[in-house]
Give the backbone structure.
Amino acid sequence: MEVFGDERPLNKEPVNIHDVLNHVRRLAESGFARGMRIIEDYDPSLPPIPGNRDKLVQAFLNLIKNAAEAIGDDEDGQGRIILQTSFRPGVRLSVPGVDARITLPLMIQIEDNGAGVPDHLKPHLFDPFVTTKHNGTGLGLALVAKIIGDHGGIIECDSEGKRTVFRVLLPMQERNRKDGPNAGPAVNDRRS
């Protein structure tokens, strides 16, 4: 519970989200997702994310663990988790408490073909103490939502039948403030 009350700003640095996802995939494959198919569909042009690598590992590890648990034992070998990244320019959102619309062009999706999320839980999925697990605390998705929010992003869930998608939208690395108060997102400048 201490984590939820921590309002200190994150120590952020440019993070390659694919390195984070690959690390989490390896952990999952050697543990709780052993034997499941994990499919990667990455956009190689994604720029760095301003973030805390350890916190992002924690968030995505939790999402993949939930996906594996939703699939269950997978005795028939049909269980699969899809990790997908993409760049979505032009995605601008209105966020409460912020006057301007914010740009969150970096999308990371975790998709599974497990049982899905019951309809009555969908509106409360990211609230603390909401769980479908017999021994669960209901803090995992609330913690993920906090971590993603601390990174300036949002998380959404779509679940229908045998398809559940957790979609994380994050900002790009910002330019140095010396570029002016209206500086847009960083552009990869590969000049020597």
